[in-house]
Automatic annotation (TrEMBL):
It comes from Gasterosteus aculeatus aculeatus (three-spined stickleback). Its main location: cytoplasm. This is Insulin-like growth factor 2 mRNA binding protein 3. Transmembrane segments: none annotated. The keyword RNA-binding applies. It comes from the Eukaryota. It is found in: Cytoplasm; Nucleus. Belongs to the RRM IMP/VICKZ family. InterPro entries: KH_dom, KH_dom_type_1, KH_dom_type_1_sf, Nucleotide-bd_a/b_plait_sf, RBD_domain_sf, RRM_dom. The keyword Repeat applies.
Length: 579
């Protein structure tokens, strides 16, 4: 990948001209320049030299009045699924990039390239050739935070050997292995993780951690390049206080280890004899994936780090405290290793969730996703208060939207998990979402392996309730570790509007399916119910179902507006009565 193509070359250009330019910019090359009419080729000794030539010369250096264009030389047969994206803003977050790339197809790998430039460079492999071509057409030259992206093909050595890829659906498949979980693309400096490390410490050790006039905590902050918040005023009189550490994953781990060492020393000095475990706080959304099927992930971390790990019960959760406590027992060194592995899993889960959220959220109108409280905010002071969750009865940005009813079908075996012990989980879910949630009795559906869940509420409440149900089914392993949760939802529409959902010759419903990746069916020959309504069936993963529901509601709203009688031209609006 070290052969360069130089374009926009003047007819007057010679081999000596290029020798002079490369020498002037101190760019090594390993062979002669092959100069043709309008373009040239040259080999570089390694990828670093090739990247320097592209970064320094392309679009920046003139030769005989023409700006040179420099990029990797890629034979046509190797212009397949691999792209290089350059000039990425240095502080751009991984999940933002992920969401942007996934708009054009399935991303099989995304690897950062080490360069000497301030901006970042990544090599991306798409699942299909047409997806890579679309991404190149759309992204090349597009602006991001005042940086113009530069996209070019890089050699795909497997292109000649492989047949056409079957990857068609847009979204993420297997990730590349070289990213090491860092959420920031910035090569200098490293950016902090979006997920801070939150730990609980015994209240009696808080003074030692802060130190005289704050000297100890300042020293930890300086040495680990982190921001540390000790929430002393939370839970007055409690035996433990939360600490939030914002830094890179490495910085978080170093600060945590230092805090454990300070507590150990203070315990010896004060003759405190009880064991001091490491307690990590984690949002419940990530705990199911952290534990793994049949507890395999957690068992492996225990074995690899020689620790004993327990997680607080679901019953301890409330709407305003969605965090679980992970207790790690072992030596300080063992607990530090366990913290690294646990937080790595949590950050991977967060990154995956946010990539999916960013990919689809802009396509779902009428929803205030920032107010959903489905994921930890990552903001300083993020904690049990979860201030982003609206109070019961408040529905964020959706107050102007009417209530909707959706029938969601779940595996019959999952009903107990959704209801929870003594109905606790479904009550909390209903309270959290601001929706009415009812599960049909078993006898209603006979021998079918599914049960109907009826959810009533405005769009934001629908989104929150359905998201939690999809997540719960994944957490409780009703779907395999590599299996996407796909459910069927039914919504009722007026019989006279069913034709608008289908469209002429099925055009609207086909466009709906292509846009949302959901299966949308309006069964033929339905008999309208007592309210003159018929069923529309929607099947797919969470975001596909949500997007299809929103688009169908848009169609219904449009039909409703058209049904309203228009005011006559001479009619005057009623005047307010004077008191």
């Amino acid at each position: 990948m070290n052969k360069l193509y130089i374009g926009n070359v003047s007819a007057e250009a010679s081999e000596e001209d290029f020798e002079t330019i490369f020498e002037q910019w101190k760019i090594p090359h390993s062979g002669p320049f092959l100069v043709k009419t309008g373009y040239a080729f040259v080999d570089c000794p390694d990828e670093k030299a090739a990247m320097k030539a592209i970064d320094v010369l392309s679009g920046k250096v003139e030769l005989h009045g023409k700006l040179l264009e420099v990029e990797h030389s890629v034979p046509k047969r190797q212009r397949s699924c691999k792209l290089q994206i350059r000039n990425i803003p240095p502080h751009m977050q991984w999940e933002v990039l992920d969401g942007m790339l996934a708009q054009y197809g399935g991303v099989e790998s995304c690897e950062q390239v080490n360069t000497d430039t301030e901006t970042a460079v990544v090599n991306v492999r798409y699942a299909a050739k047409d997806q890579a071509r679309l991404a190149m057409e759309k992204l090349n030259g597009s602006m991001m935070e005042n940086y113009a992206l530069k996209v070019s093909y890089i050699p795909d050595e497997t292109a000649a050997a492989e047949g056409p890829s079957a990857g068609g659906r847009r979204g993420y498949v297997a990730r590349g292995s070289s990213r090491s979980g860092s959420p920031s693309l910035g090569t200098r400096p490293k950016m902090q993780s979006d997920i801070p490390l939150r730990i609980l410490v015994p209240t009696q050790f808080v003074g030692a951690i802060i130190g005289k006039e704050g000297a100890t905590i300042r020293n930890i902050t300086k040495q680990t390049h982190s921001k540390i918040d000790i929430h002393r005023k939370e839970n007055a009189g409690a035996a433990e206080k939360p600490i939030t550490i914002h830094s890179t994953p490495e910085g978080c781990s170093n600060a945590c280890t230092t805090i454990m060492e300070i507590m150990q020393k203070e315990a010896l000095d004060t003759k405190f004899t009880e064991e001091i475990p490491l307690k990590i706080l984690a949002h419940n959304n990530f705990v199911g994936r952290l534990i793994g099927k049949e507890g395999r992930n957690l068992k492996k971390i225990e074995q690899d780090t020689e620790t004993k790990i327990t997680i607080s019960a679901l019953q301890d959760l409330t709407v305003y405290n969605p965090e679980r406590t992970i207790t790690v027992k072992g030596t300080i060194e063992a607990c530090a290793r366990a913290e690294e592995e646990l937080m790595k899993k949590i950050r991977e889960s967060y990154e995956s969730d946010m990539a999916a959220m960013n990919l689809q959220s802009n396509l779902i109108p009428g929803l205030n996703l920032n107010a959903l409280g489905l994921f930890p905010s990552g903001a300083p002071g993020m904690g049990p208060s979860m201030s982003s969750i609206p109070p019961p009865g408040a529905h964020g940005g959706c107050s102007s939207f009417g209530s909707e009813t959706v029938h969601l079908f779940i595996p019959a075996l999952a009903v107990g998990a959704i209801i929870g012990k003594q109905g606790q989980h479904i009550k909390q879910l209903s309270h959290f979402a601001g929706a009415s949630i009812k599960i049909a009795p078993a006898e209603e559906v006979g021998a079918t392996p599914q049960r109907r869940v009826t959810i009533a509420g405005p769009p934001e409440a629908q989104f929150k309730a359905q998201c939690r149900i999809f997540g719960k089914l994944k957490e409780e392993n009703f779907f395999g570790p590599k299996e996407e949760v796909k459910l069927e939802a039914h919504i009722k529409v007026p019989s006279f509007a069913a034709g608008r959902v289908i469209g002429k010759g099925g055009k609207t419903v086909n466009e709906l399916q292509n846009l949302t990746c959901a299966e949308v069916v309006v069964p033929r020959d339905q008999t309208p119910d007592e309210n003159d309504q018929v069923i529309v069936k929607i099947s797919g993963h969470f975001f596909a179902c949500q997007l299809a529901q929103r688009k169908i509601q848009e169609i219904l709203a449009q039909v409703k507006r058209q049904q309203q009688p228009k005011p006559t031209s001479g009619a005057q609006p009623p005047q307010p009565r004077r008191k």
